[in-house]
Target: Diaminopimelate epimerase
Amino acid sequence: MTHTFYKYQGTGNDFVMIDNRQSIFNKKNTKLVAHLCDRRFGIGADGLILLESHDTYDFKMVYFNADGNESSMCGNGGRCITAFAKHLGIIQDKAVFEAIDGLHHARIEGDLVHLQMQDVSDVQHHPGHVFLNTGSPHHVQMEQQLDVLDVKTQGAKIRYGQPYNSSGSNVNFVSKISNDIFSVRTYERGVEDETLSCGTGVTAVALAMNYTGETNMNKVTLKTPGGDLKVSFEKSNDGYRNIWLIGPALLVFKGTISW
Ligand SMILES: N[C@@H](CCC[C@H](N)C(=O)O)C(=O)O
Model:
């Protein structure tokens, strides 16, 4: 049977988006998700997102990595699904939706989507890196030679190494440009490669840079290979609150495919 799909991207982190309000998609079909995300045999994307109906809120987001497995929160995907919900006429410029890590508020201002992330209370500062969960797990470490780093090889070593092992972590390599601007390259678990940007990743980087004293600002710019994102936040007694991820989210194309 032929089905309609939409392709979205947020700073180059790209997603197949499916309107699943009529429950047309079998969520247990890992092979189908991986096939649709395959860049040679399918549509091609870093992940697949289902927009589903919700009894109380505007919609529900279900996120799968390109390997076909349902995973934890995707920040860029959360911004893209907000733009998709507007395209479908479900929302105007504001949304409240449920994702795997809880409720998210979002608002659209032109091409920019502002997405509120969950509060973060547990920031672990280890020698040489910081680990924190911003909806997805993130290892953050500074890197001198970010431009020439082999992110796929170095990221995979950390992602599969101790203490993360098979459950893994996303891995962010960071270089400081100024007090409120950082360059970031991310290895994504479930894609098992560098992606052009990662929303929960840059959120983790912004908080880690503040936590370790690399910035004293509460709004920072994160430059990724796919474009610029901004993260704003407030310090709380036990961590960070009122965290917002801000950046573009755009429809690339719409098509039909059989499954
Ligand atoms: N690209 C995402 C992160 C998606 C989840 C991640 N790959 C994981 O499995 O932890 C983002 O923008 O946050």
Summary: The longest strand covers residues 227-236.
